[in-house]
Amino acid sequence: MTVLLVNVLTYVFMHLRVIIPDLEYLVVSEMYGIHRICKQQQSYRVLREKRIPPWMEVALIPMTGKPSLYPGLFLFTTPCRLVRPVQNLELGREELIGTMEQIFMNVAIFEDEVLAGVTTHQELFPHSLLSVIANFIPFSDHNQSPRNMYQCQMGKQTMGFPLLTYQARSDNKLYRLQTPQSPLVRPYMYDYYDMDNYPIGTNAIVAVISYTGYDMEDAMIVNKASWERGFAHGSVYKSEFIDLSEKIKQGDDSLVFGVKPGDPRILQKLDDDGLPFIGAQLQYGDPYYSYLNLNTGESFVMYY
C-alpha cells in the first residue's frame, strides 16, 4: 500500500511502487499547496499519464480544526481495491475513484445539481446512487422501501450460479442452482454487468387468489410437476480436508495415503493413492479413504 501523509507532524510512509514526480519526498509543516498537488495528481490519473496509474486513489483529507479523520494526502496503489467510475466535469472524462476519496468529493447525480466551483464530478447514470444488488431489482420505484432493502439483503444469499470453475475450487462450501434461467423482466444494469453468465434465479409464476377467504400468511403451494422437473433444485459442494498428522498417536509414526494390496475392505472403490476415483459417487458405507502406517505396515480404511 502506498500511503503518503502530509501534515504538521512529520510522518512520511514511503513504500512507493510507482515513482511520482514532486512527491517522492514531500514533508511540509502546513497544508498550504496540498489542494493544488492533489488536483494535479488527479488530473494525471484521468489523462492516463504514465507517471500516475489510472487506478491509484488520491484522497485528500483537509484540516478542519474539528474532530475528524487524520488530515493529510493519502495515495493508494494496492490491488483489489473497490473503485467505481464517475465523470470528471473539468476534464470531461471518466475517472475511477476509491472509497476513501469519494467521501470528500462533491459528486452530483443530475445536471441541475452541479454547482460551479463546488461540484467536481457527476454520476454516469442516475441509478449509480444505488448498489449493484439494488440495480437488479426490476421496477424498484414501485416497491415499498422495506421490500427493496429486504431484497438487497436476500439477493446476496440466494442460491444461484456464482462461478464456472466448480471442479477447480477448494471453498469450504459452495451452492449451485441446477436450473438457472434468464429473467423475463430485467433492469438495464442486469445486462450491463452480463449477469446472464452468472444467473441468480429461476422464473416463477406466482398466482394470488384473494377472494377464497383462505390465508396462509407467508406460505405458498408449489406445483408438484414443476418441482419434479427440477424447479429450485440445487447442489452443495463441500470440501473436506484430511490431515494425517492429526491421526499420529506416537511421535515416530509415519502415515501416508495408500492402499494395501488385496485388502478386501476396498472392493475397487479407492485408487492407488488411497482416495476415491475422480468423479466417483459414494454411497453410505463406501470406503472413503485409506492410509498406511509405514512403521507397522498396518492399513486403515475410513468409510463415508
UniProtKB/TrEMBL annotation:
Q: In this protein, which residues make up the domain named DNA-directed RNA polymerase I subunit RPA2?
A: 35-84
* Its EC number(s): 2.7.7.6
What is one GO biological process annotated to this record? DNA-templated transcription
Q: Which InterPro entries match?
A: DNA-dir_RNA_pol_su2, DNA-dir_RNAP_su2_dom, DNA-dir_RNAP_su2_hyb_sf, RNA_pol_RPB2_OB-fold, Rpa2_dom_4
Q: Which residues form the DNA-directed RNA polymerase subunit 2 hybrid-binding domain?
A: 133-292
UniProt GO molecular function: DNA binding; DNA-directed RNA polymerase activity; ribonucleoside binding
The answer to whether UniProt assigns keyword Transmembrane to this entry is no
* Swiss-Prot/TrEMBL catalytic activity: RNA(n) + a ribonucleoside 5'-triphosphate = RNA(n+1) + diphosphate
Q: Which residues form a coiled coil?
A: none
GO (cellular component) term, any one: nucleus
Q: Does the keyword Glycoprotein apply?
A: no
Report any Pfam family annotated for this entry: RNA_pol_Rpb2_6
Q: Which key words tag this protein in UniProt?
A: DNA-directed RNA polymerase, Nucleotidyltransferase, Transcription, Transferase
The family assignment reads: Belongs to the RNA polymerase beta chain family.
Name it.
DNA-directed RNA polymerase
